Batch of 2 targets.
Target 1
Amino acid sequence: MDIYDSLVTIVGKDGVSNSQEELFLYSRDSGAQQPRKVDYVVMPETVEQVQKVLLIANKEKIPITPLGGGFTLSALVVPNKGGIVMDMKRMDKIIEVNEINRYAVVEAGVSQAALQSYLVKNHPNLQHSTPEAPPTVTVVGNALIQGHGHISPRYGMNSDMINGMEVVLPTGEICKIGSCSVSPYWFTRGPLPDLPGLFIGWFGTTGIVTKLSIKLYPKPKYRDVMAFVTDDIDSITKAVFEANQLDLLEDFFLISQEKPDWMNHVFFVIIVSGHFEDEIELKKKAYKKLFREFGEGGRMEFVEDLHPALRKRFLDVPPLAALAADFRKGGGFEYTGAILPIDKVPEAWRKGIEIAHKYGMICSYVHQVLMGNSIMFGFNYSFNRADEEDVEKTRKALDESNRFTFEIGGMVWKGEVGAQKMAMEKMDPNTAALIKRVKGLLDPNGIMNPGNWEPVT
Ligand SMILES: Cc1cc2nc3c(=O)[nH]c(=O)nc-3n(C[C@H](O)[C@H](O)[C@H](O)COP(=O)(O)OP(=O)(O)OC[C@H]3O[C@@H](n4cnc5c(N)ncnc54)[C@H](O)[C@@H]3O)c2cc1C
């Protein structure tokens, strides 16, 4: 049997495609990277089907790339060496929500919006950390790429919220990881050797996660938003430090954009939440006092009359701060998600403006402060998809932003292959060798999303 027929035997005719029209869609994402070739798309419905497809791919040495929502923008789901894209969207069951122990077990295709609406309907007192991303992105894909959501400044990266998973290894074994390997409860990843790390941040190069348990958190009854504004870029570091020291916030991001003129300032957006109205008022008072004292001499102002449309945008879950970006005709949007030490923000801010101007773009920023010790610093670029010159300029701007991020001691989050190469070049050689060994052990035939996290030879 040829490969197509074998795949049809496993997942049925409706679950496989090699038609040019469908392969076209899977050969690109909505970011600025070049399209690449795909040979087959497979949509399994069960873990056994995933296992069988992997066994064939491993035997025939066919590359295989897992795909959730496909929205990293950095072409992580576009194969580098052809082969099969395994689209997980048909595995879309919310298997369990354990209210008392506050976790949800979901299949790999469950979207952020599906989990969010399920919780609103059935467990209104609980919430999960929701990324500021299109609603179709998957809970599993996001946790695996070390994403962050609207409560990350308070509770940590979404990957830290993983309690355990079911994963199919490239060689076909189905493994349970975390407490679910020894207990019916998917409630914790330890105390055990911390195996989830073998699959988090690896971009699908070590196995296919079919189920995952994610922590849930109390959903506060009241939320409010406050904004402060400054033009003093050098004050950002101290202001972020002080706001974190106060330790009363739910979410915290910085936005700015050169046009329209009213946005050409540094806005600090703080979301406070709580179970009592008094609690909210107290928190708001505390931040007003902090920023008033901090801003003495006119450096920092409280935005008294935040427009209702902006209030709504910031209070939505997910917040829609990215809409601040300057979207061009053609709708392309990309960013380098630099994870930076907070004291590097002013330097990065100035460099971002320089890079944007060099390529004829308007500078726009959305940064989320993460747990007080780092920031996701988004160098945002918008482009016209239909204009190849514009797309090429964006690729160059991203490349410069990535390089600069590493130069100042930061890391590129969910980086495209070029950014991964920069990381591998900078990396301690023994660490790079360890990555190679781990990949070799788990994936002896190198079939899993090849081209990603490849050691520089
Ligand atoms: C406008 C915009 C704003 C965004 N803002 C945020 C934000 O604030 N916070 C945030 O965290 N993200 C943000 N993102 C990124 C987006 O959330 C990520 O794309 C998403 O979280 C990843 O999920 P996905 O389903 O798209 O994964 P995919 O892009 O499908 O996959 C990501 C990686 O994981 C691998 N993978 C996927 N599923 C599996 C699996 N089951 N097993 C093994 N490997 C797998 C893929 O091969 C790929 O390497 C934003 C994106 C956009 C477009």
Note: The chain has 13 helices and 19 strands.
Target 2
Amino acid sequence: MRLLAFLMVILAPVLAFPRLGLHEGYTRLVFDLDPTALYQFSQTPDTLTIRFSGVTVAASDTEVSSPQVASYQVVPSAGGATVFVRLRQNVEVKTSLLTDANRRRLVVDVLSLARPGSNPPSAGAPARPLPPKPRTQPKIVVLDAGHGGIDPGAVGFVVEKEVTLDLALRLQQLLQNQGIEVILTRNSDAHLSRDKATDLGMRADMANSKRNLFISIHVNSAPNTAQGIEVYYFGNTIDPSLLAQVIRENGGGELGRRLTREAQSVGERLVSDLIAQSNLKFSRQLAHYVQASMLQATGAVDRGVRQAPFYVIRNARIPAILVEVGFANHPVEGRRLQTDEYRQTLAEALARGILRFLNNGG
Ligand SMILES: [Zn+2]
């Protein structure tokens, strides 16, 4: 009998981790655990993170596409694993641990919150008071208009600091119209500090985990006739032509080189930081949505989605990107950037990319 039980264990199919169940109104994730396994939860508006120790599981990346859960990722580590569950809007997480003789199951239910009007009263029923407003937190987006005040940024047919502020203000309006809360790093022609390292540090600090995403807006320049749009998420690069641009955006000159070295060393440490790696994946997704949306709206040259050690996004714990909307010194693109019409087109495209990301839960 003992042998039979043993055989049944080793012959049992390897159970998925987690097992997934899709139900009306909720998505269920079941984690089968050994008696010694431990776990710990943390949650932001977008992501439920569960850190396990005492489990041995394979890496996976699974699209769920239910009304409650967009996807989940399992990232193994020494002696354990971390699971990132990407949540959609208007959901609530409930967990329970079920234990019987020889197994433990951690059950995570992600439930849709009821919306007003989802249960219309039947005819003839007495009038009922309006259901309470759902306690859903608005999404919070941080917009960083690059440069400002004593720092004009790139200067050509336009001045970078003026374009970035104008785009941020237009984008703020568009996002607020969609019920999204917007935090601006600046709302006037001002620097945050005369010291560029402090200035960039203050902007970067706004990308904290109480917000949903961070977008730093910039205008490019180049010694040649380069043109087009590119979107960056954080990471190291060995491309020397890219480094010149990164140093310029990181404050230029000796300071820019120092801040770039600092950001590069953060990049090296991030390689072994699971949470940062997961967040970078979401940043890359956001970058692709925003880039695709801007290219479609403008027909501009596609300079791609790339990684580079920009100081302002080096420590972000939320999806964070830096967009270069065009070249200030290009004779055609620079002049396009002068017009209200083109700026509005860019702002609307940025908004569409952001909304696609927020609504897909990444
Ligand atoms: Zn810039």
Note: Residues 6-12, 120-125 have pLDDT under 50 and may be disordered.
